[in-house]
Design goal:
Length: about 220
C-alpha cells in the first residue's frame, strides 16, 4: 500500500459520515450504549453524566506533534482550513529514539501561540517515509477565534464552501435543542479529517467546571 493511498482502519467511511446527524437522536445513542451499560462496563446510559469535576494540574497545552506522510500536504491543509501559519521546516536529522531512523519537522503557528503544532515525517533505515497508523489517536481540538456557537457554525459553513467536508457536526456537546448531541463539554464543535486522517475538532464555548458541577446537582434532584 502506497503512503498516499493509505486510510487507517479506524476512519469512518464516507457513507457513514452522512449518518452522523442521527447521533443527535437520544434513542439511538442509548441503543448504541446499551450493551456496555448492561454489562457494567459503563455505569450510566447517559453520556451527559460524564464530566470533568476536578480542575486540571495542567495550565495549558504547549505543543502537539503529529507523524505525517507529507509535510507540505499537511502544511497546506492546516494553512487553508485552520488559518495556521508556517514557522520553520528543519532538515532531516537522526531520530531521537530509533537508531538509524531519521525525522524531518515542520513547525506551525496559531494566532496567539507560536509553534504549537509540529508535523514530523519519519524515515526508516532505507529512507522511506513511514505511514502513521493513527490507531491510538482519537482527536485534538483547535479553538475557533471568537469562541462562540455562531463562530463555529460560520467556520463550518465557510469550510464547506471551500470544499472541506466535515466528518461530524457542527453540534453542541450537551442535550440542548436543536443542536445537542448528548455528549459532555457543552462546547460547540465541528470535526474534519486532516490529510493523515487525524480527527481535528474546531470548537468554541467550552463549558466550565462550575457549570459541570451545577448540572450534576440538577440531575441528582
Amino acid at each position: 500500500m502506497r503512503a498516499e493511498n493509505y486510510i487507517p482502519p479506524n476512519v469512518i467511511p464516507k457513507p457513514l459520515r452522512k449518518m452522523a446527524p442521527l447521533l443527535k437522536k437520544r434513542w439511538l445513542r442509548k441503543l448504541i450504549l446499551l450493551p456496555s451499560t448492561i454489562s457494567g462496563k459503563r455505569f450510566s446510559n447517559k453520556t451527559e453524566d460524564y464530566g470533568v469535576f476536578k480542575p486540571s494540574m495542567i495550565s495549558n497545552l504547549d505543543q502537539i506533534s503529529l507523524y505525517v506522510r507529507d509535510i507540505e500536504k499537511s502544511r497546506k491543509w492546516y494553512e487553508d482550513l485552520a488559518g495556521m501559519t508556517h514557522s520553520r521546516t528543519c532538515e532531516k536529522e537522526p531520530h531521537p529514539i530509533k537508531e538509524g531512523f531519521q525525522i524531518k519537522c515542520c513547525y506551525m503557528n496559531a494566532k496567539d501561540h507560536e509553534e504549537c503544532v509540529v508535523f514530523i515525517e519519519e524515515y526508516d533505515l532505507e529512507g522511506n517515509v513511514i505511514i502513521p497508523s493513527g490507531m491510538s489517536f482519537f482527536h485534538f481540538a483547535l479553538e475557533v477565534e471568537g469562541n462562540s456557537m455562531e463562530d463555529v457554525f460560520a467556520f463550518a459553513e465557510q469550510a464547506n464552501s471551500r470544499g472541506f467536508e466535515q466528518n461530524y457536526g457542527p453540534v453542541r456537546h450537551n442535550d440542548s435543542i436543536p443542536h445537542g448531541d448528548g455528549e459532555t463539554g457543552g462546547n460547540v464543535a465541528v470535526y474534519f479529517y486532516d490529510p493523515d486522517y487525524n480527527n481535528v475538532e474546531f470548537c468554541g464555548g467550552m463549558d466550565t467546571i462550575d457549570n459541570y458541577k451545577e448540572r450534576a446537582k440538577q440531575m441528582k434532584k
